[in-house]
Design a protein that fits this description.
There is one protein chain. It is built from 6 helices and 12 strands. The chain folds into 2 domains: about 10-190, Glucose Oxidase, domain 1 (3-Layer(bba) Sandwich), CATH 3.50.30; about 195-230, no CATH class. The mean pLDDT is about 95. It is an alpha/beta fold and about 230 residues long. It has helices spanning about 10-15, 20-30, 75-80, 110-115, 190-210, 215-230; strands at about 45, 55-65, 90-95, 120-125, 125-130, 140, 145, 155, 160-165, 165-170, 175, 180-185. It is about 30% helix and about 25% strand. Strands 1, 2, 3, 4, 6, 8, 11 and 12 form an 8-stranded mixed sheet that branches. Strands 5-7 form a two-stranded parallel sheet. The protein starts with 7 loop residues before the first helix and ends with a helix. Strand 2 (about 55-65), helix 3 and strand 3 form a beta-alpha-beta unit. The radius of gyration is 20 Å and the shape is elongated.
């Protein structure tokens, strides 16, 4: 068993915040990652009402335009790879087709299988389908919706992928909701609640000042000053 810098409960605690709030906290903890580690293109959410998902990345690449050539990755091997054990997992699938999303890997059957294996959802630049028949509670953040799976197949898995500029590797902690997804460095997981609390307290001063009658630039300056003094 891999020794980690966090527990399952630590990941569970991060579900109480949306992904933008997680990004805010990371800006304090790992400022060098302020402009990297998150998706930068709009994603289509299977269900905008679902809460955030937090789990360990299970990475893979897919293609669908043409039948597989050469050695084919056994679909069962992929299922064995993504199956959750000590921690919940999130599939992070990079579609290699140009443009991506020609054929959908995700639909009624695959979401049902993956959910039963303990996978919380998927982040992909590819497509998904069967919108009214997806496994309840299984979140997909995809590049588009499409009608066919075409020749979709797994090309490889367990290696680094890039989903709309989010570089993700096996076992990375992923936080995702309808806004997008972000990679949380392992050492930052337990530091996030305190960092988010600090950001929230600073923002509260500004928001409360904005709601007061007669708010003006002078009041804003005072609010910014007070916020900056909060540590």
């Amino acid at each position: 068993m891999t020794e980690r810098a966090f527990t399952r409960a630590d990941l569970e605690a991060l579900k109480q915040w949306d992904t933008p709030t997680i990004c805010n906290g990371l800006e304090l903890i790992v400022p060098e990652r302020r402009a990297i580690g998150f998706t930068v293109e709009p994603l289509v959410a299977a269900d905008r009402k679902l809460p955030p998902i937090v789990g360990l990345a299970r990475t893979g690449t897919i293609m669908a335009k043409e039948p597989p050539r050469g050695k084919v990755v056994d679909r069962i091997a992929w299922y064995e790879y993504v199956a959750a054990e000590d921690f919940p997992t999130i599939a992070v699938l990079q579609d290699l087709d140009h443009p991506p999303g020609y054929g959908a890997f995700w639909g009624e059957v695959n979401t049902t299988i993956h959910k039963a294996l303990g996978v919380l959802g998927c982040v992909t630049n590819g497509s998904f389908r069967d919108l009214d028949m997806l496994a309840p509670g299984f979140q997909i953040l995809g590049g588009r919706v499409g009608p066919s799976h075409a020749h979709v197949h797994v090309v490889d898995f367990g290696k680094p992928v890039n989903i709309f500029s989010m570089q993700a590797a096996h076992d990375d902690v992923i936080h995702a909701d309808f806004h997008g997804a972000v990679v949380i460095p392992a050492e930052a997981v337990r530091k996030l609640p305190r960092a988010i609390d600090l950001v929230s307290r600073r923002e509260k001063v500004i928001l409360e000042m904005c709601a007061k009658p007669g708010f003006n630039v002078a009041a804003l300056k005072e609010a910014l000053r007070r916020a900056g003094e909060i540590h």
